[in-house]
Amino acid sequence: MKKAFIPLMLCILVAMSAGCGSKQEPATPEADASAFVNITDVVPDVILEIRYFGTYNFVGSRIDGYLQPTALLTRQAADSLLAVSNDLKAQGYRLKIYDAYRPQQAVDHFVRWGKDLDDTLMKTYFYPRECKDSLFIKLYIDEHSSHSRGSTLDLTLFDMRTEKEVDMGGTFDWFGRESHPDCGGNPDTWAYGENDTITAQQFANRIILRTAMMSHGFKPYDCEWWHFTLKDEPFPDTYFTFPVQQLPR
What we know:
Blueprint (H helix, E strand, L loop, with lengths): L1 H18 L16 E3 H4 L4 E2 L23 E3 H15 L3 E7 L4 H12 L7 H4 L25 E8 L4 E2 L19 E2 L4 E2 L7 H16 L2 E4 L2 E7 L19
Parallel strand pairs: 2-4
Antiparallel strand pairs: 1-3, 4-5, 5-6, 5-10, 7-8, 9-10
Helix pairs in contact: 3-6
């Protein structure tokens, strides 16, 4: 009995020591934040206004999964964003970020909210001309978001001369025609279309952001002037679940 007991105890002790003090591996690949960085560590002069950490958003409350008012991206996307920032700083602008990586639990929160047709707290501010039951049909809300893959962000320009956010002719997360990049003209040819709902200057401001983002590897989204995804995103099929909070350096 003693000979059998000693090896057994040694196995238990080895197993316990392996667990104590060792780095815990994520339960699933979706929970692994090791390929992500804090945007401000890479692009230190960006301005953060993380709307889903606060209450000024289309839901009207803090969104699940936002534990701190910070912004995360994959390392590849953050490095490309640095090139964008350097480009725009030479033109007199800084970047202002509303959202970047968005955990799947936040998307799930949007879906639950979208199905509750009685909750219209923020309708006046974000979707006054839309019926809430149309938000899924028009894909304003979906069960998955490119943000959860870690290389998408929502942003605008900040004018360093006026010290004000640049007028883009529509607010972030506005559900309506004004959010489309082709509102005001053709974003590919930069040709302004008269008699639209935004001015020529507002359209031109959108083009400044769009041109800089596309010049450094990001692709635009047809429905939102503020939304861009890294063209060669490293995780095109993974929807991450870890929360938004400051990552250790």
